[in-house]
Amino acid sequence: MALADAVGALGVDLAACLLAFPVALFPMVNEVRFGGDPRITGAFLSALAVGGLLAALFSGAVTGIRRSGAVQLTAALSWGLAVAGFGLAGHLGAALVCLLVAGAADSISVIVRAALVQAETPDAYRGRVSSTELVAGIAGPELGNVRGGLVASLTSAPVALVTGGLAAAAVIGVIGARNRPLRDYRAPG
């Protein structure tokens, strides 16, 4: 894997997390749109998790696709658009479907990125690359929650979700357009 591939793969994941992580905004969206019932906030969290779990159950089929870079880009782009859709959703059913899609897209993106990076990283660098992935996986969502909260405090939770989701999709689109090695990456085998 060329350096551009690795940087692009990690950049896609960071853009998705930093710009569109929605969890901190769930209580605010619930209050504004759905009356503040704590069970609805729990349903938001569960929908995201169920989508991720369903995608993980079928991850073998996804990781078997040779065009791993394109799969990661598509999944991350879908995450951003699903988060934006959640921000626009006025009906509870639509909001939950958006979160199911977002959870599935996130799992696919992370699974494919991890497989891609691990398959192509030379043994001498595997520990450092794994450490970078771990830090990005922990810090990215938390910093994304901070970003979401800051934007929501200046505007509203739905605006923070829509702008964050669309910004993530745009950045991921730029990475995909500019990083041909990632976009065209084919898994070995």
From TrEMBL:
<keyword id="KW-1133">Transmembrane helix</keyword>
<feature type="transmembrane region" description="Helical">
    <location>
        <begin position="7"/>
        <end position="28"/>
    </location>
</feature>
<feature type="transmembrane region" description="Helical">
    <location>
        <begin position="157"/>
        <end position="177"/>
    </location>
</feature>
<feature type="domain" description="Major facilitator superfamily (MFS) profile">
    <location>
        <begin position="1"/>
        <end position="189"/>
    </location>
</feature>
<dbReference type="InterPro" id="IPR020846">
    <property type="entry name" value="MFS_dom"/>
</dbReference>
<dbReference type="InterPro" id="IPR010290">
    <property type="entry name" value="TM_effector"/>
</dbReference>
<feature type="transmembrane region" description="Helical">
    <location>
        <begin position="40"/>
        <end position="65"/>
    </location>
</feature>
<dbReference type="Pfam" id="PF05977">
    <property type="entry name" value="MFS_3"/>
</dbReference>
<keyword id="KW-0472">Membrane</keyword>
<keyword id="KW-1003">Cell membrane</keyword>
<dbReference type="InterPro" id="IPR036259">
    <property type="entry name" value="MFS_trans_sf"/>
</dbReference>
<protein>
    <submittedName>
        <fullName>MFS transporter</fullName>
    </submittedName>
</protein>
<keyword id="KW-0813">Transport</keyword>
<keyword id="KW-0812">Transmembrane</keyword>
<feature type="transmembrane region" description="Helical">
    <location>
        <begin position="77"/>
        <end position="102"/>
    </location>
</feature>
